[in-house]
Structures are given as structure tokens and as C-alpha cells.
Amino acid sequence: MDERKKAIGFFDSGIGGLSVLKEAIRLLPxxxxxxxxxxxxxxxxxxxxxxVKELTFKAVDFLIAKGVKAIVIACNTATSAAIxxxxxxxxxxxxxxxxxxxxxxxxxxxxxxxxxxxxxxxxAEAKFNTLLKSYESEADIVPVPCAGxxxxxxxxxxxxxxxxxxxxxxxAPFINEPISSxxxxxxxxxxxxxxxxxxxxxxxxxxxxxxxTAKQLxxxxxxxxxxxxxxxxxxxxxINSLNSEDILKLSYKLLT
Length: 256
Hints:
17% strand, Rossmann fold
């Protein structure tokens, strides 16, 4: 089979990575995608690092068995825990990760705090703290651990009382503070962006890493001469470890 015609694998601990896949489909409309969400084991953000690594490696093995040409780890927690080991084991396959978009937030040069909303594990990992230290002299960056928010999204609560109450509690300390931007450091969080905007000021910039990750995927495929340049539109296959009709319906809905 022509390597260029193979699908691209996407992985997340649940449905969150669909926010990244949506950008990839827009940027690479001719590509076929296979998305695997591990909702039965979600959330990853409160699990031990070794357990997250094990689950991530199993997911990657599953996608490789499907014959994919590249893999996107569309999960900040899994990227933090396993990306270096994945690249070492599966080289030369392109494996693209995602991390909180701190750099674009700093480069806005807007006055106020930069809030980094992410899972406790992402914020605790050395990868994030190295990133944080590289910018701490340039901006006032405040980590905001959001244990439980990914689960709320997994349950399909994208707006309404449940998610609104959660976010009001988390963001309450910053309501009257000058805020430059909010970085969404978990791929589940863009699905509740509207609720975040409704709680904070309208002019606050909200940033996530979805587009940057999709662009990096395109660059990697181009450099490896693996871009599918077919004229027809590609396909999307979604698989979820929960294997329920409801989660699959929600997954396809989130791509629209």
C-alpha cells in the first residue's frame, strides 16, 4: 500500500482529543484518520505516571496495528508522561504530542496573569515545569489545577449548571484580577470555552494547543513525504474503549 494513503492515528484519554482532530481535519482534508479514545480508563490526569505510560503505550500499539503512518498524542497528560519514551521506541514514525500553549500566551505581551488550566498531573510533570521556568521571568503565569473537569466533559456536560458551577469555583480567585489570557492545557477544555468566557471578561484571550499541534502534524508529514494529496475528502473512524453508542454519538457530534 502507498504509505501516503495510510491513516493518521489520534489518541486521547477520552473525547478531549477531538478538539485537536477537528483542527487536523480542517488543515488536512484529504487525510484519513483513526481516533482512539480511552474513555473507560479516563481520567488520566489523576492517575500515577507509570499507569498513564502503560495505558498510552497500549493505545499506540493498538493504532500501529491499524496500520497508521503517524500518531498524534492528543492528550496533554499522556504527552507529559510518555512522549519521549514513545518517540524512542517507535522511531522513525512521527509521533506528535501536545503541551499547554504557554509560548503564544506570553508572546501576546498583554498585562495581567496568564492562567494555565490543566490536569494536576500535567502541571506536576517535569515537562511542564521546564516550560514554565523558561517563561517565568517574562510573565506572571499561574497554574490552575482542574481535577474533575475532564470527567464533566466526558459525561457530555459542555454547558449548563454542572460545568458552570465547577468553573465559577475554580476561577473565583481571579474574577477581579487583571488577566492577560487563559491557556487550556487539556484537550477536553476547549469544549467548555464558552462557559469560561461567560465567567471571565469578554476580552480575555483563550488559547489552546490544537491548531499548533495540527500544524506540526502537517509539517512532519510533509518532511517525510507522507502527505495524502488526493482530491477527495478523507474519512474519520472513531473507536472508544467504552464501546457505547452514546460515547460514539457524542464523539461524532463534537467534530461537527
